[in-house]
Amino acid sequence: RGALRAQLLAAMVREQLRVTAHEASSAGLDFSISPSPRGLDLALFGFSQHAAELAATVLRSLRRLEPNGPRYVAQKERLRRGLADASKAAAHAHASAQSAHLLRKIHFEPPALLDELGRTSEEDVREYAGALFSKCHVEMLVVGNLDAAAAKALLGKARDELGGSPLPRAERPAQAVAD
């Protein structure tokens, strides 16, 4: 359930921030949000003094998803079509999916996600977003024009924006390769 809810959360936040993304793009910044076996991955691209503001906006939106029935219905339908059409994907996509299925301990097949999608409501996704950050671990890789102090300040800002308590090391998920 969490994997599907993470996909819906990422899609809903991307849609919620469409105008922000356009404005950021005009300033040479971009971001992506994608679910991963470890939680959610947020990537920021571009060089600007406003990157930290964009990161805070995206993190705030992840934590406080705005209710929007039509947005949820549209994103759920888009995800449903993608999962239903997974078998029609290009050969390289099938190879990648098969590789993930064989090598990763944490992997979800489209039919299982599609089945769960029918039982998932917008309220489920909002509850998931709230619970997801009750305990969290933030990792950051900075490449570019930030010195160490600025990178640490950005990491602290990200932690503050997400709130919650630190996730103990023993509870942090790791993407293991199957034996």
Describe the structure.
- With 179 residues, the chain is mainly α.
- 56% of the residues lie in helices and 10% in strands.
- The protein has 8 helices and 4 strands; from the N terminus they run ααββαααααβαβ.
- The strands form 2 sheets. The protein has a two-stranded antiparallel ribbon with strand order 1-2.
- Strand 3 (135-136), helix 8 and strand 4 form a beta-alpha-beta unit.
- Helix 1 (2-16) packs across helix 7 (122-132).
- The protein is globular and about 45 Å long.
- The model has no long low-confidence stretch (mean pLDDT 82).
Give me some keywords for this one:
single chain; 179 residues; mainly alpha; two-stranded parallel ribbon; 4 strands
How would the blueprint of this fold be written?
Blueprint: H1 2-16, H2 18-26, E1 30-36, E2 39-45, H3 51-63, H4 69-84, H5 91-103, H6 110-117, H7 122-132, E3 135-136, H8 148-162, E4 165-166
Parallel strand pairs: 3-4
Antiparallel strand pairs: 1-2
